[in-house]
Amino acid sequence: xxxxxxxxxxxxxxxxxxxxxxxxxxxxxxxxxxxxxxxxxxxxxxxxxxxxxxxxxxxxxxxxxxxxxxxxxxxxxxxxxxxxxxxxxxxxxxxxxxxxxxxxxxxxxxxxxxxxxxxxxxxxxxxxxxxxxxxxxxxxxxxxxxxxxxxxxxxxxxxxxxxxxxxxxxxxxxxxxxxxxxxxxxxxxxxxxxxxxxxxxxxxxxxxxxxxxxxxxxxxxxxxxxxxxxxxxxxxxxxxxxxxxxxxxxxxxxxxxxxxxxxxxxxxxxxxxxxxxxxxxxxxxxxxxxxxxxxxxxxxxxxxxxxxxxxxxxxxxxxxxxxxxxxxxxxxxxxxxxxxxxxxxxxxxxxxxxxxxxxxxxxxxxxxxxxxxxxxxxxxxxxxxxxxxxxxxxxxxxxxxxxxxxxxxxxxxx
Amino acid sequence: xxxxxxxxxxxxxxxxxxxxxxxxxxxxxxxxxxxxxxxxxxxxxxxxxxxxxxxxxxxxxxxxxxxxxxxxxxxxxxxxxxxxxxxxxxxxxxxxxxxxxxxxxxxxxxxxxxxxxxxx
Lengths: 414, 120
Hints:
The complex is a heterodimer. Chain A is α+β, with helices and mostly antiparallel strands. Chain A has helices spanning about 5-10, 20, 25-35, 160-170, 195-200, 205-210, 215-220, 255-260, 280-285, 340-375, 390-400, 405-414; strands at about 15, 40-45, 55-60, 65-70, 75-80, 95, 100-105, 110, 115-120, 140-145, 145-150, 180-190, 230-235, 235-245, 295-300, 305-310, 315-325, 325-335, 380. In chain A, strand 3 (about 55-60) and strand 4 form a beta hairpin. In chain A, helix 3 (about 25-35) crosses helix 11 and helix 11 runs antiparallel to helix 12 (about 405-414). Chain A is globular, with a radius of gyration of 23 Å. By secondary structure, chain B is mostly helical. Chain B is built from four helices and one strand; from the N terminus they run ααααβ. The radius of gyration of chain B is 14 Å and the shape is globular. Classes of the chains: A alpha+beta, B mainly alpha. Chains A and B meet through strand 12, helix 8 and helix 10 of A and helix 2, helix 3, helix 4 and strand 1 of B. Strand 12 (about 180-190) of chain A pairs antiparallel with strand 1 (about 110-115) of chain B.
């Protein structure tokens, strides 16, 4: 019996309670102690490349709609998307560009993209409003390696760099190919958000659940159950490396798959890019950190709900957003090159089509798991060593829920 | 709901030499990755198999023909032929990988949406 990863993480090996997946009390704690405290992902700097660009992101668990803007001086800022007049949402579309002013569609109060209130329509009928004090409410916003994060606690005193800690150092400097172009797979799911995190945190299920879609990419006779290659733990965050079958080739019978990959010199079937375009990525010290010859991908989890996954052929991300105890919004972004001809478009269509079905295999499963757990028949789950991240996340959440500040939570996870 | 492609009056459905694929245009030549996935998932396995069997032997010739045109600015017949090629990638997931129209054991309609920055 092996417990190398679980013991290295300082965790015990007993069964783990299922209560956090089905308890409203626990969900309310997560809202206050996790999501209102932690730094949360909003996107890439490439999502707002030019001054005047903006995106709007929902943080449903906190009831927040967040406007992220790029100012004329290049700075990225975040605001609550709430009008100072009577609280309507100022920006109604999910993204846009060339907009340095936002006019609330309700009564035409107008704000700069730096949050300042510029104009009140029919101002003379108000009673001496101090416009200086009525800008959009600012939200803490910081950048790390091109990723935009916010913090919803106005009193927060832990900077993003400190929050990411050794995980930020581990991943720093990764050259993300095609960071400016992505295809998103989105799903609204009837399950607790942690089931979705769990689904993308272990490889034990891959040879079984994904046996036809990607099973043979992630396992072979030498490692039939897709044991992990590497695991590392950084405060509340963590990283694992998955096994890859070095001899995987599309089956002879997969004629369209062969056609789709005929123009590609790629690392494996999870490749959006030509091999030559990911050399710098693969050479980074923390990509395949064990430098294993039988490696497929790394899963880098930034607590609580953001994963940066890196394979030999590129990178993709998962965002898992709780809506309620049993509802979740899930978004997986694949960062892909811009196809320039029909062959490249065909390859990308095949790549995304397969992944949409892989994701569906996972997503149909998380709803079933939620039902099973909500039924109350079982009180604990039994985890093996390769499921260490699931056990560890439950431990990290418990530490956040117990701590009276973010500083205290980080100290408890150190 | 099933989508359907309408060929503008006076246009040929497909470029000359690809007339044999015309019966597949209305259903399979839809614009957009999410839409093509929807068509595949909403079809029966037999419908997918008929399209796959007709399209596979023509795919290489179609791609060779289409390489002469800019990907994002093709004439109508070429754009529809390109979408048939892309739909073949979708169909192949059913035929080559699942041997089933959809992910076995997953519900249909499902919760998955593909959101692209451009519609090919």
